[in-house]
Amino acid sequence: MTAAQILGEVFYSIIGLVFILVGAKALKDEGCSKKVTTAAFWFLLAFTFIAGPWVPKWLVGAAIVIMACLTAIGGVVQSKNDVPDPVEVRKQADKLGYKIFIPALCIAVVAVVGATLGSKVKALNWLTANNAIGLSGVVALFAVLLLTKASPKYAAVDGARLMDNVSTTGILPQLLSALGALFTAAGVGDAVSYYVSMVVPENNILIACFIYCLGMALFTMIMGNGFAAFTVIMTGIGVPFLINQGANPIVVGALGLTAAYCGTLCTPMAANFNIVPAALLETKNKYAVIVSQLPFAVCMLLTHVALLYFLAF
Q1: How far apart are the two ends of the chain, measured CA to CA in Å?
Q2: How far apart are CA 9 and CA 5, in angstroms?
Q3: Tens of pLDDT along 212-257?
Q4: pLDDT reported for residue 189
Q5: How many C-beta atoms lie closer than 10 Å to residue 222's C-beta?
Q6: Cα atoms found within 13 Å of the Cα of residue 199, Cβ hemisphere only
Q7: How far is 255 from 261, CA to CA, in rounded Å?
Q8: How far is the C-alpha of 23 from the C-alpha of 36, rounded, in Å?
Q9: Half-sphere exposure in the Cβ direction for 125 (13 Å, CA)
Q10: Cα-flanking dihedrals φ and ψ of residue 202, to 5°?
């Protein structure tokens, strides 16, 4: 293994340890009604992250199937959390002020700088984009500890608590990226093209623009990933119904991807954007982010249809 791969496995193992802590937290919670199945899910997930590269692939596949079954039967629930006292939280927030954003800034700056240096400096070729993100997390953790003077144990305690709040939606990005590749390989784009040709009148550019933008948004809502939807809809609708009719490919491509993001605003499948923030903020309605974004998404989607119609032809 290369240095980059070794460092990557270290970061994956650290993530796996967090999953183990979540599972252990569930086992220790006597009030958790489904602590065995909940713990089993998190331990299996940790197994795939830590031991995945070293065991037969069928074993990882079996673990994923079992995890899916545990989720499907509602066997994964949130265990009891020791939530900080609101008065103490308010006191610490007033004390730190805007300095609390320094760790978040560290993540962004270190990740970008690290990935850039890793791609340009030969001696730092071990610092791949993923490793740069992992390194930025380490730097941010030290920044948090210096700012708050908190005990390092809270990194593990609160890390497990937040992961427990996010729950199974935390692994949706991995699932959906694989789903996009499967859809493309299975020829879903060709199937979409066939059925759309039965609906869209020949040479009706306006309806083609509407179907293209709506298709981008709907597939993104299903797959939770604009890039995965882009491949399918561009193949099935963009090329045959727009580009082959004389549309500017650059405009079609650019507006197609941003139209897909309109769907991102409306779906729980885009967990990183819509469900994870609600879980971290501990809102009463886990779909609160989606509800607030929905009217803007509809307006932007209609705007995309108009822009595509007037700018692409």
Answers
A1: 51
A2: 6
A3: 999 899 888 887 777 777 878 888 888 888 888 888 998 998 899 8
A4: 67
A5: 17
A6: 11
A7: 10
A8: 9
A9: 3
A10: -60, 130
What DSSP string runs through 207-218? HHHHHHHHHHHH
Round to whole Å and give the CA distance between 141 and 80: 24
The residue among 43 and 186 whose pLDDT is bigger is 43
Task: Specify whether the CB–CB gap between 266 and 293 falls below 8 A.
Answer: yes
Structure tokens at 136: 């930025």
By the 8 A CB rule, do 206 and 214 touch? no
Q: Residue 263: which of 300, 303, 238 has the closest Cα?
A: 300
User: In one letter, which amino acid is 53?
Assistant: P
**Whether the model pTM is above 0.85:** no
For residue 45, which of 29, 72, 28, 21 has the smallest C-alpha distance?
Answer: 21
Phi/psi zone of residue 137: left (φ > 0), alpha (ψ -120 to 50 degrees), beta?
Answer: alpha
Which amino acid belongs to residue 118? G
The DSSP 8-state label assigned to residue 239 in this structure reads I
Q: Per 3-state DSSP, what percentage of the chain is helix, strand, and coil (rounded to 5)?
A: 80, 0, 20
C-alpha to C-alpha distance for 26 and 304, rounded to whole angstroms: 46
| Strand residue runs (E) in the chain | none
DSSP at 140: H
Q: Are 304 and 259 in contact (CB under 8 A)?
A: yes
Taking the C-alpha atoms of residue 203 and residue 304, their distance in angstroms, rounded to an integer, is 19
Helices (H) and strands (E) in the chain, counts: 14, 0
Closest by CA to 253, choosing from 237, 264, 265, 273, is 237
Q: Residue 288: which of 259, 270, 268, 272 has the closest Cα?
A: 268
